[in-house]
Amino acid sequence: MDRSYDHERVEPRAEAVHRIEFSIEWPPWTVAAYLLDGSEPTLVDAGIPGSTGEDELEAGLADHGYAVEDVAHLLVTHPHSDHLGQAPAIADAGATVYAPRPTLDRLRRSEADLEAGVRETAHAVGLPDDRVDAEVERALDSLRRNRRLLSPDDVDVGFDFGGSFVAGEHTVTPLHTPGHQADHAAFAVTLGGDRLLFSGDVLVEPFRAAALNVGLDRGAEDAVSEYYRAYDRLDGRAFDRVHPGHGPVFETYDAVLAASRERLDEMIADVVEAVPAGEAVAPVAVTDARGKRLDPPAALLDTIGALGYLEDAGRVTSEFRDGVRRYRRV
Questions:
Q1: Backbone dihedral angles phi then psi of residue 142, each to the nearest 5 degrees
Q2: In 139-162, which positions are buried (b, 16+ CB within 10 angstroms) versus exposed (e)?
Q3: Which Gene3D superfamilies match (predicted)?
Q4: Are 321 and 273 in contact (CB under 8 A)?
Q5: Which of 20, 174, 225, 247 satisfies CB 3.0 to 4.6 Å to 60 for a cystine?
Q6: What secondary structure, in 3-state letters, does 6-56 show?
């Protein structure tokens, strides 16, 4: 069950943070980057690829008196194309680029190893051979695209989690918040006494982003457990305002965190209901029983992650037969 809040839309304060929106072709139809004012302007995320993204970046910066070459620092939350799109142009214009160190390792992965991992995993979740081939091609295309948009050799600072770094005049604390993407970083920054969180896709008011994590690859079953770890890491912190990758800027940090956790709980409950107590079935069959589409694979990845979480909790059990993992309810 989705939750909504009666609230007045919160706009970023003009003297500190400017929101730049880019068009995307799926709900909620926009993705946001944020420009932090200062003598060394800092951009969080880089919008979508292509000429539309280029035009929207230039127009968004111009609305606040900036050009691409004025951006001194670019912080990347995670390697999805709607957040990386204009990174090459921003880097070419002279910005210092920051990204999670594990992301750089992931982008350096060999295509042969990725293909082997995806092929093994796609078969194990019950996809037919033609869909296995399609998912391998999807994963390879994604890796190649992300390398074009964020070449590891073009990243100036590969940061680690557990500390802070300085970007211009801003002290930035990256928080490891996996689940939607395995290396996802949310950035905590204090500006003018306000505690801000640039949450990327881990914390969005209108919805919970899918548990894509590593994709359809080895470790896909850990995605939901990783999401809960991200929420646990955010729990107990205090922020005055959150600037997400999708949806409106909001000041109801605790409420949105609680709603996000509830949405994850509800997805798990939906998966439990779809797992039979009798003959064990593959994750593809569980996803189908939930009434969800297999293509694109977001719902399948949610299901795989939920089944892994439920098995760790002792609520389902699995057996591995003929290269396919099948689950039944306990």
A1: -65, -45
A2: beeebebbbebbbbeebeeebeee
A3: Ribonuclease Z/Hydroxyacylglutathione hydrolase-like (3.60.15.10)
A4: no
A5: 20
A6: CCCCECCCCCCEEEEEEECCCCCCEEEEEEECCCCCEEECCCCCHHHHHHH
Q: Which two tokens stand for residue 119?
A: 């092929």
Per-chain mean pLDDT for the chain? 95
CB–CB of 158/145 below 8 Å? no
CATH no. for 17-329 = 3.60.15.10
CB 224 within 8 A of CB 308: yes
Alpha carbons 161 and 170: distance in angstroms, whole number: 17
Q: Where residue 1 falls among pLDDT bands split at 50, 70, 90?
A: very low
Confidence label for 319 from pLDDT (cuts 50, 70 and 90): very high
Q: Given 3-state DSSP classes, what are the helix, strand and coil percentages for the chain, each rounded to the nearest 5?
A: 40, 20, 40
- Tokens 């706009």 belong to residue: 11
pLDDT tens digit string along 257-312?
999 999 999 999 999 999 999 999 999 999 999 999 999 999 999 999 999 999 99
42 contacts 36 by C-beta, under 8 angstroms: yes
DSSP bridge pairs for 181: 213
Global pTM value: 0.94
Residue with tokens 């970023």: 12
Each domain of the chain, given as residue ranges in start order, spans 17-329
Tell me the one-letter amino acid at 301. L
Q: What percent of the chain has pLDDT over 70?
A: 95
Q: Is the peptide bond before 102 cis (omega within 30 degrees of 0)?
A: no
